[in-house]
Amino acid sequence: MTDMPESESAVTPHYGGDGRSGTYQASGLPESARVAWVAATDGEVIASPVLAGDTLLVADSAARLYAFDAATGALRRRHTYSDDWVEEEFEPGDFVAQLPIAVWNDMVFVGVGGLDHEFDDCLHVHDLKTGQVLRTIEGPWHPTVIGDLLLLSGDGGM
């Protein structure tokens, strides 16, 4: 054994069981688990939804941000990021926009970047309750919130 302090030698990383297999013993979903609600979006949802209080925020590949009531699935509002969007151009399966979402306090940060169509490549800051756009910052930014820190990564660095 090395001269490692006792507190450090007692710390052993575990990845699952003692055999570090990556598996965990768990009972799985309770038998009473069920789908609470399903909502339709205009495009494919390719990123994880974000829960902010009682609001579930979802972005789709058709460059739209949705705010759903997390308990009922009722649509509270929808915001489209391209004013010149031609509805007929979008077909299911098209990957046209990426919209990473982060929430801090009462603000929602959405990075909009286009792949198949012309989008503005901006970070949009929305009011969580009203959906109103409070500010727009140019650049293809991907927002992440950690505590009180907003991190923006993109083509320009971090």
Give me some keywords for this one.
158 residues; mainly beta; 5-stranded antiparallel beta sheet; 4-stranded antiparallel beta sheet; 1 helix; 11 strands; 37% strand; globular
What does it look like?
It is built from one helix and eleven strands; from the N terminus they run H-E-E-E-E-E-E-E-E-E-E-E. The chain has one helix at residues 6-9, and strands at residues 50-52, 55-60, 64-69, 75-80, 97-98, 101-104, 107-114, 122-127, 133-138, 141-146, 149-154. Strands 5, 6, 7, 8 and 9 form a five-stranded antiparallel β-sheet that branches. The longest helix is centred in the N-terminal third of the chain and has 4 residues, at 6-9. It starts with 5 loop residues before the first helix and ends with a strand. Residues 84-88 have low confidence and may be disordered.
